[in-house]
Amino acid sequence: MKLNTDSASKGNLGLAGAGGIVRDYEGKVILAFSELIGFTNNMVVEMHVVLKGLGICLEKGFSKVCLSWMLFISFISYPGKLEGSGIFKICSNISKYT
């Protein structure tokens, strides 16, 4: 399965929403989800939707999931942006799925 996620926020501290789609090896849509996250910044909402998507995949019994996460490059390229942002807890929850 492949999980694609994306999110948006109105400003870098504003109302945010996110969603994802899971496809099989042929590209067939297996499931999709979306939700309003609330008032937050873009990094938190990106991590939230990845965590949510991985949780849904686990609940559905998908043991092998390829994650397509565009913002991951930013996280590893600019690690200083994570300091003091409250994101470390979300990161540790995501790492439980790896």
From TrEMBL:
Gene3D superfamilies with a match to the protein in the record: Ribonuclease H-like superfamily/Ribonuclease H
InterPro entries in the record: RNase_H-like, RNaseH-like_sf, RNaseH_domain, RNaseH_sf
GO molecular function: nucleic acid binding; RNA-DNA hybrid ribonuclease activity
Domain of life of the source: Eukaryota
Family matches, as Pfam families: RVT_3
Stretches assigned to the RNase H type-1 domain: 4-66
Protein name: RNase H type-1 domain-containing protein
Organism field: Sesamum radiatum (Black benniseed)
Lineage: Eukaryota, Viridiplantae, Streptophyta, Embryophyta, Tracheophyta
